[in-house]
């Protein structure tokens, strides 16, 4: 860090040294600097996705704090008297009027508001992509299972932040979103009617909901997000970052530039780049033009209403239910047109949350894993991921079913039926294709290791035959292709009491499903025995 | 964290074997290949152009500080734009300019700063990779034993296990203590109201005139031509002091006139319409969006939120989409002056289904 040794600094000390000593003697910070300052931080573009999420959250905090100084979370009715002429005199809530004031009467206010909204969209998107990276590279394996759970909780908290924030301006679009939430909640058996009644402070829409969502949006939820992010990052330090397989990299080391200075420069610079990109989008592209929608009124609605992108999957799930899934039984209404989407999404969320534990149970692998897998080297996991992505994408597309129908001149019914097929059959197709592609890519890797790569050099043999010369990989490139592990299917064995339990059988069948088709990495022996005994 | 004593070790110190020093944790069903390739160790370091060519290094340095100057310029421009592009003219175009130029200034400031710092890190700072040794996350057996001893000591000294009565009564008290906080949530909604009766009634009464939304002007039957559709509220709703939106969320109605020959009415509801004029709740029976889109030639109503479709000619039964129940019909008639009036309130709760509905 600094040139002079702090304890022997009896001669002239620079101001920074003196300041560092002063602070350290009151905080013991030197221990942290020594511990963390030169940690090696593995480098890869895909490791930046989590940083995008973190940095866009910082932008959200900064821009959001500015907005709180102007926004008024009240549903008291006023007649708008701001600068936006078309709405002058229109009756609206104070929340809506203050949002219009931020947009039209405070210089730079619209810019900050749009940054806040764009950053929120980016935040959720970056978390989603970051989670896909973690999933497809198996970076959730021991010791990182809890961090997967924390990260996924953050994804859900981010969606909650998004929805509560989106509802605050009390405009027509967000009010219809709340109306849908109200209808959803009322469909929950036993408690739904009361939850809705309490949430809205009486009948929908009431005069409470904006203030309540505001408390959640700027206090409870951000506190939770910050706490979970802090926990998430502490675990990144405790576990050290994963790294991709490469020459010299092992399960026992972490290789990369030191935190100070290079990693700090790259990450710090990257923060400003993210901030800058959000600023660029916010200065060029309008988001959520509430002045076009007008204040909330339960009667009008515009065609083609869309939620923010990350709520789309839930809205789409509602749209895909066929007619008639509701009935009265025991003198009570059972709304399966609402329950089925809620339960399906609930199961999906629980499966994603628990996936690390499920896979660990199937493999029985209790070792720590710090080398990230290439997706192709875990074909079944990758195929499950592809199936999950297809399921989510089908639901998400369904939220735009009307827009799809009008843009491509299709029938509403046709779009819905096609998307029902995508959501139910699509995952199976995606699973099959992804698994086959993975295995094919693994075979290609084997082929390259065994027979080398095409050098592009064509040689004519004495007999007149033309061949392309294959060249062997060097040992570093070869290592990237052979340094992975495979698992074999679990053999059923009786336990200590000589019994084969149902759990054992289930685990064995899952294990077979996971690992029956597998490609092993090339071994030394295979290369030595005449290039795999192929010719 | 406390276990990393090897931070910053030199690159060459890396293990070359993939499986060396691995703990004795079970590999499960993983195949341990005896014949596997050995890790070749780190490849030779490749210097960057800025390491080898002093000119390129100089140029990289110039690029970095130029970007920083540009960034400062961008910040100053954003401040200038704040003053140069006022928006006090009630003109939307000025808002757009203010947004654009403050934004572009901030963008330049941020992007140039970020790219400059990253370029400094990548091209100018010393290009070195360090190797940290990893340790089992669980810590050494000694640490684990020490932690276990702390708990054992604490348990012995407190008697948490031994004094079962104290412990169990503590747990009991802890379970009960949040209950008052739960009860407080009843105050989230008015104490003197219950949800189900509120959901079961609307503002419509016998004799309430049908009025235009939002003006509140009463509608005469003679004004409703065949094929037309009106957005309707009860007369008096527009003048309500309190609870206007809550009443409107239940009482909003769509009024349509069809050729009576095309109208297929339920026998018990034949008296609910007037000369082909029918009135239905506008609130979707799915999750409550306004069913606002009327297609005149098919007599279909479409909810724009989840695409439920209702057939007006067939007492608004569902023909597509996730809704189950038909839109509730408002029985209407005309009064002496020819205005359309309600015969009564809706005969069933309007809007989304709820548990207690039957």
UniProtKB/TrEMBL annotation, chain A:
InterPro entries the UniProt entry points to: Cyt_b/b6_N, Cytb/b6-like_sf, Di-haem_cyt_TM
Membrane-spanning ranges: 52-71, 117-136, 148-168, 214-238, 270-291, 338-362, 383-408, 414-434
Main enzyme class: translocase
Keyword Protease recorded: no
Cofactor: heme
Catalyzed reaction equations: a quinol + 2 Fe(III)-[cytochrome c](out) = a quinone + 2 Fe(II)-[cytochrome c](out) + 2 H(+)(out)
Entry EC no(s): 7.1.1.8
Domain Cytochrome b/b6 N-terminal region profile, chain residue ranges per copy: 19-245
SUPFAM superfamilies tied to this protein: Transmembrane di-heme cytochromes (SSF81342)
UniProt entry keywords in alphabetical sequence: Membrane, Transmembrane, Transmembrane helix
UniProt-listed PANTHER family: CYTOCHROME B (PTHR19271:SF16)
Protein's UniProt name: Cytochrome bc1 complex cytochrome b subunit
Organism per entry: Agromyces allii
UniProtKB/TrEMBL annotation, chain B:
Listed name of the protein: Cytochrome bc1 complex Rieske iron-sulfur subunit
Localization of this protein: Cell membrane
Reported function: Iron-sulfur subunit of the cytochrome bc1 complex, an essential component of the respiratory electron transport chain required for ATP synthesis. The bc1 complex catalyzes the oxidation of menaquinol and the reduction of cytochrome c in the respiratory chain. The bc1 complex operates through a Q-cycle mechanism that couples electron transfer to generation of the proton gradient that drives ATP synthesis.
Family: Belongs to the Rieske iron-sulfur protein family.
Recorded coiled-coil stretches: none
Keywords per UniProt: 2Fe-2S, Cell membrane, Disulfide bond, Electron transport, Iron, Iron-sulfur, Membrane, Metal-binding, Oxidoreductase, Respiratory chain, Transmembrane, Transmembrane helix, Transport
Segments passing through the bilayer: 64-85, 97-118, 170-189
Stretches the record annotates as Disordered: 1-57
Organism listed in the record: Agromyces allii
InterPro entries per record: QcrA_N, Rieske_2Fe-2S, Rieske_2Fe-2S_sf, Rieske_Fe-S_prot
Topology class, membrane: Multi-pass membrane protein
PANTHER family tied to this protein: CYTOCHROME B-C1 COMPLEX SUBUNIT RIESKE, MITOCHONDRIAL (PTHR10134)
Iron-sulfur recorded as keyword: yes
Family matches, as SUPFAM superfamilies: ISP domain (SSF50022)
Stretch forming the signal peptide: none
Record-annotated Rieske domain positions: 250-341
């Amino acid at each position: 860090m600094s040139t002079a040794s702090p304890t022997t600094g009896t001669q002239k000390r620079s101001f920074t040294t003196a300041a560092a000593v002063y602070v350290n003697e009151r905080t013991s910070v030197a221990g942290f600097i020594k511990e963390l300052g030169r940690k090696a931080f593995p480098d890869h573009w895909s490791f930046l996705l989590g940083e995008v999420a973190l940095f866009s959250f910082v932008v959200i905090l900064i821009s959001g704090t500015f907005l709180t100084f102007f926004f008024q979370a009240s549903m008291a009715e006023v007649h708008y008297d701001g600068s936006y002429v078309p709405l002058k005199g229109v009756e609206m809530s104070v929340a809506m009027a203050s949002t219009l004031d931020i947009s039209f009467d405070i210089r730079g206010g619209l810019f900050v508001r749009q940054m806040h909204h764009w950053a929120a969209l980016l935040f959720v998107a970056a978390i989603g992509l970051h989670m896909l990276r973690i999933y497809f590279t198996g970076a959730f394996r021991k010791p990182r299972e809890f961090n997967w759970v924390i990260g996924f909780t953050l994804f859900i908290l981010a969606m909650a932040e998004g929805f509560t924030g989106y509802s605050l301006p009390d405009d027509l679009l967000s009010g219809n979103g709340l109306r849908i939430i109200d209808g959803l909640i009322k469909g929950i058996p036993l408690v739904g009617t009361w939850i809705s009644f309490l949430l809205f402070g009486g009948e929908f829409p009431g005069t409470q909901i904006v203030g309540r969502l505001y408390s959640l949006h700027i206090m409870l939820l951000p506190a939770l997000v910050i706490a979970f992010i802090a926990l998430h990052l502490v675990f990144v330090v405790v576990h050290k970052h994963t790294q991709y397989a490469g020459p010299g990299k092992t399960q026992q080391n972490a290789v990369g530039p030191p935190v100070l200075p290079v990693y700090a420069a790259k990450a710090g610079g990257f923060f400003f780049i993210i901030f800058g990109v959000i600023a660029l989008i916010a200065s060029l592209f309008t988001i959520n033009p509430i002045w076009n929608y007008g204040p909330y009124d339960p009667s009008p609605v515009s065609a083609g209403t869309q939620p923010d992108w990350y709520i789309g999957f839930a809205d789409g799930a509602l749209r895909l239910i066929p007619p008639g899934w509701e009935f009265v039984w025991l003198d009570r209404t059972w709304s399966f047109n609402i329950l089925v989407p809620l339960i399906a999404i609930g199961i999906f969320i629980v499966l994603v949350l628990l996936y690390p534990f499920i896979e660990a149970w199937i493999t029985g692998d209790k070792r720590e894993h710090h080398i990230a897998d290439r997706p192709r080297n875990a074909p079944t996991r990758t195929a499950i991921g592809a199936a999950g992505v297809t399921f989510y994408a089908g639901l998400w597309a369904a939220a735009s079913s009307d827009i799809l129908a009008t843009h491509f001149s299709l029938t509403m019914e046709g779009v819905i039926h096609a998307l029902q097929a995508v959501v139910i059959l699509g995952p199976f197709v995606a699973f099959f294709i992804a698994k086959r592609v993975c295995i094919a890519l693994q075979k290609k890797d084997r082929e390259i290791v065994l027979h080398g790569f095409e050098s592009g050099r064509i040689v004519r043999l004495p007999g007149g035959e033309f061949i392309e010369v294959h060249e062997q990989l060097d040992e570093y490139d070869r290592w990237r292709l052979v340094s992975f592990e495979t698992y074999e299917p679990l053999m059923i064995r009786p336990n200590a009491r000589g019994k084969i339990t149902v759990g054992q059988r289930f685990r064995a069948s899952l294990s077979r499903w996971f690992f029956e088709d597998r490609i092993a990495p090339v071994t030394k022996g295979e290369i030595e025995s005449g290039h795999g005994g192929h010719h | 964290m406390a276990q990393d004593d090897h931070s910053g070790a030199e690159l060459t110190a890396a293990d070359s074997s993939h499986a060396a020093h691995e703990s004795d944790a079970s590999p499960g069903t993983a195949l341990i290949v005896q014949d596997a390739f050995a890790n070749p160790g780190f490849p030779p370091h490749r210097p960057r152009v800025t390491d080898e060519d002093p000119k390129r290094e100089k140029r990289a340095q110039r690029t970095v500080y130029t970007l920083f100057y540009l960034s400062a310029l961008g910040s100053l421009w954003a401040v200038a734009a704040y003053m140069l592009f006022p928006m006090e003219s009630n003109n939307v175009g000025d808002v757009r300019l203010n947004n654009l130029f403050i934004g572009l200034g901030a963008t330049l400031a941020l992007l140039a700063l970020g790219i400059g710092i990253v370029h400094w890190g990548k091209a100018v700072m010393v290009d070195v990779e360090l190797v940290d040794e990893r340790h089992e996350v669980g810590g050494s057996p000694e640490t684990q034993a020490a932690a276990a001893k702390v708990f054992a000591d604490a348990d012995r000294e407190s008697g948490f296990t031994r004094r079962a009565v104290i412990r169990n009564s503590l747990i009991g008290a802890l379970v009960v203590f949040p209950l008052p906080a739960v009860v407080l949530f009843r105050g989230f909604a008015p104490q003197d109201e219950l949800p189900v009766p509120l959901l079961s009634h609307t503002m419509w009464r016998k004799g309430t005139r049908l009025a235009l939304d939002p003006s509140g002007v009463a509608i005469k039957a003679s004004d409703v031509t065949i094929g037309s559709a009106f957005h309707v509220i009860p007369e008096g709703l527009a003048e309500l002091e309190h609870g206007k939106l809550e009443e409107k969320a239940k009482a909003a109605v769509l009024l349509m006139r069809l050729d009576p020959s095309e109208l297929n009415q339920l026998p018990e509801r034949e008296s609910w319409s007037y000369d082909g004029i029918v009135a239905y709740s506008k609130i979707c029976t799915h999750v409550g969006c306004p069913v606002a889109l009327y297609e005149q030639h098919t007599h279909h109503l479409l909810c724009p939120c989840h695409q439920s479709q209702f057939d007006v000619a067939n007492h608004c039964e569902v023909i597509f989409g996730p809704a189950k129940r038909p839109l509730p019909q408002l029985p209407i008639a005309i009064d002496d002056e020819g205005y359309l009036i309600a015969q009564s309130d809706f005969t069933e709760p309007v809007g989304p289904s709820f548990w207690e509905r039957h």
